[in-house]
Amino acid sequence: MIDRTLQPRILEPEQLAVQMPERMVLSNGIPLNVLNAGENEVVRIDFLIKGGRWQQVQPLQALFTNRMLREGTRRFTAAEIAERLDYYGAWLELSSASEHAYLTLYSLNKYLPETLDVLESIVKEPIFPEKELGVIIDTNIQQFLVNSSKVDFLAHRGLLKAVFGERHPGGRLVQEEDYHRITPSVLRDFYNRYYHSGNCSIYLSGKVTDECIRKVEQLFGSEPFGTGFRKPEKKEYLPVVSEEKRIFIERPDALQSAVRMGMLSLDRNHPDYLKLRVLVTLFGGYFGSRLMSNIREEKGYTYGISAGVMPYPGQGVLAVNAETANEFVEPLIAEVYHEIDRLQNDLVPAEELSMVQNYMSGEMCRSYESAFSLADAWIFVQISGLRDSYFTDALDAVKNVTPEEIRELAGKHLCKEKLKEVVSGKKMS
Question: What InterPro entries does the database record attribute to this sequence (predicted)?
Fold first, then answer.
């Protein structure tokens, strides 16, 4: 019998057994990564296109090019695409990021030929119909206007502008007039430049059979598709950080204020990055963090506060996020600096560091337990330019970081002088 009065022993993972993808190259040169790790009769196919905000020539071009792929092709209308995917129990996700666009299809194995037929048309022959584009743009404008009344949205935009500058794609804030400049020809230009077989890679995950691979190769790997076939040039932009320490964005009717504190931080390839993750988690990256324990639990200034490093090409952005009553803005900011001082001057107690290490190790194990999460993990490695040993290196960094290293990293990378303070809310007299 189990003695339930005794707490189960904590077992630390010795290593991460993250399954490697089987890598091959299709006949037309597209890299194919296969992760056969599923028990259920479901597969997922991910298209990675090297073309995002960093490559666009005007705001929203990359986003709407990706978004409009499902709104009509030479063979299918938008309604037919939606109806066919729904009929076969499939799900299509489209997204666009800094340097990549993604198309992700979830499909039952038995209907993969039918669903891949739809995906092929979406990838190879979208038509960007003007009527559907107009409807989507109108919807997005309304959502943008709604978001523009929210203090968290305004503070987030203010922080990006402060740390990157207006000419950097990370700090170039979308305005309402940018939506009106999007036309089918603008999207077609971006599609023709970046959506081709010489500029993409494919991940196939789940219960992947030889028949699945054969079907993918038949539709996407037998011959080149698209136009131009030029690889995108690597674009690098220099951030221009604002000289202002405090940026205030007024919302006179706001019941509470959004606070964003942030600064440029490390790229994911920096030697300090993996151990910095431990520091940031301890600082504000989980429910038991320093910021939560002090500012939420002890002081009651906010319902939630967090810190993390947002990844961008070339650098990250260290950000502290919170919403609080207008009268608590100043004491909340003061407590954030107080916690930075503690991390820079005092050694973290071994018990607290051990709790963070156990939390992060558990999260890492949980993140790589399914076929689809494995695909996400290896896509992250690819787009970040990381080594295949990243997962082992990350676990080693978590397990072996010392209190002395935490203090040293806080001194190097939690620079109070560089932190921008962005507040959006009601002006206090």
Answer: Metalloenz_LuxS/M16, MPP/UQCRC_Complex, Pept_M16_N, Peptidase_M16_C
Question: 26: which DSSP letter?
Answer: -
**One domain for residues 168 and 255:** no
The three-state secondary structure class of 360 is helix
Full-model pTM: 0.92
Residue 122 in contact with residue 293, Cβ under 8 Å? no
Q: Which two tokens stand for residue 401?
A: 């970081």
Residue 410 DSSP symbol: H
Q: How far apart are CA 251 and CA 151, in angstroms?
A: 7
**Same domain, residue pair 57 and 194:** yes
3-state helix, strand, coil in the chain (%, to 5): 45, 20, 35
- Whether 134 is in a domain gets the answer yes
**Per-residue pLDDT reduced to its tens digit, 356-408:** 999 999 999 888 888 999 999 999 999 999 999 999 999 999 999 999 999 99
Of 371, 346, 345, 361, which Cα lies nearest the Cα of 400? 361
Whether residue 265 is contained in a domain is answered as yes
Q: What's the CATH code of the domain at 322? A: 3.30.830.10
DSSP string, 143-172: HHHHHTT-HHHHHHHHHHHHHH-TTSTTT-
Count of Cβ atoms closer than 10 Å to residue 322 Cβ: 28
The tens digit of pLDDT for each residue in 353-370 reads: 999 999 999 999 888 888
Same domain for 303 and 166: no
Q: Alpha carbon of 83 to those of 70, 71, 134, 165: distances in Å?
A: 12, 12, 21, 44
13 within domain boundaries: no
